[in-house]
Amino acid sequence: MTIKRISLITPPYHAGVVEAAGTWLNLGFVYIAGALRCRGYEVDYYDAMSLRHDWPDIQARIIDFAPQVVASTAFTASAPDALKLLELAKQIDPAIVTILGNVHATFCYEDLLANKAVDYIVRGEGEITLPNLLDCLNAKDSPNKVAGLAYHEADQIIVTPAASFITNLDALTPAWDLVEWPIYSYHPKPGSTLAIVSSARGCLQNCSFCSQQLFWQRTWRARTAKNFVDELQMLNREYGVNVVMLADEIPTQDKDRWRHILDMLIERQLGVKLLMETRVDNIIRDEDILDKYRLAGVEHIYVGVEAGSQALLNLFKKGTKVEQSKRAIDLINQADIVSETSFVLGMPDETPESIAQAIELAKLYNPDMAFFLAIAPWPYADLYPALKDHIATHDYRKYNLVEPVVKPRNMELTELEKQLGLASRNFYMHKFKNLAQLSDWKQKFMLEVFKVLVNNSYLAGQMQEMGQAGQEMPPELKKILALAAKKHSHQAIAPIP
Ligand code: B12
Question: 89 C-alpha vs ligand 1 centroid, how far in Å?
Answer without folding.
Answer: 22
